[in-house]
Design goal:
28% helix, elongated, eight-stranded mixed sheet, alpha+beta
């Protein structure tokens, strides 16, 4: 009897162990972890920096989306260079992403702009966003921060077994599968930015100067008339002249009545 009970307990323990293992494996399938997402750091090029390197506060949310908030930046304009994607004269805030270890390719989307590329062994993606007087002014007038949002998709090559032998492996079309997708937010507070001209002689943007000038512009203009003007007693109409004439006529008429009355009494 005891032997049967022990055997039954042993079988039950084995079944429970296998169930737990299967459940754990099924739970883990398709899930991503922190290692499947990129990490970020500031990588602003020295040609856009005047003085100290910009300071960025970097945070990650529960979905591994990244927000880089620049709390201080002293920048200068550099000439456009389309060969590296700089289409306008601007200062450029740069960032560096370290892609997931398994990633071999990435796709980046910002609005209607798209970019993609293969990753080398360093797994680094370096890019930048523009800072100009115009976009700082626009953001300030709207009471907003200057913000760029870029979505990154990290991919890796699918492990496939070719059904037909290929003479040249490079001729075989590569297939990819998505490891993860995450959003990068670059947030720049105009109040924390000073922007200089290319030669660093002119300050193109300083928030304190902007606010001071705005205060002066919004102050109502006052005008003082210091010229003295003699009061013109000439009436706007002929009303006073008419009254004067009537008065004279009345006096003459009254005098005539008095004279005629005296003559009548003497008779």
């Amino acid at each position: 009897m005891k032997k049967n009970i022990l055997s039954a307990m042993l079988v039950l323990a084995i079944v429970l162990t296998m169930t737990v293992q299967v459940f754990a494996n099924s739970e883990g399938e398709g899930e991503t972890t922190a290692k499947d997402y990129a990490t970020a750091k500031n990588a602003t090029s020295p040609d856009s920096i005047k003085g100290e390197e910009p300071e960025a506060n970097i945070t990650y949310d529960n979905d591994h989306n990244i927000t880089m908030t620049y709390t201080k930046a002293s920048l200068k304009i550099v000439a456009a260079n389309e060969s590296i994607g700089r289409k306008v004269d601007a200062a450029w805030i740069g960032y560096e992403l370290t892609a997931p270890e398994a990633a071999t390719r990435y796709e980046a989307t910002m609005g209607d702009q798209k970019a993609s590329g293969d990753l080398d062994e360093s797994k680094k993606v370096i890019d930048f966003v523009s800072v100009t007087k115009a976009n700082l002014l626009k953001a300030t007038k709207e009471g907003k921060e200057l913000k760029y949002t870029i979505t990154y998709k990290w991919e890796k090559e699918k492990e496939t077994t070719p059904t037909v032998p290929v003479a040249n492996e490079e001729e075989e079309a590569k297939e990819y599968e998505t490891i993860s997708v995450q959003t990068l937010n670059i947030v720049i507070d105009p109040a924390k930015v000073t922007l200089y001209s290319k030669d660093e002689k002119d300050t193109l943007w300083d928030n304190d100067d902007y606010l001071a000038n705005k205060k002066v512009e919004s102050k109502p203009a006052t005008t003082t008339n210091t010229s003295s003007k003699k009061k013109d007693n000439t009436p706007d109409t002929g009303f006073e002249n008419v009254v004067a004439v009537i008065g004279i006529v009345a006096m003459v008429t009254l005098a005539g009545i008095v004279i005629l009355s005296n003559n009548h009494q003497e008779e």
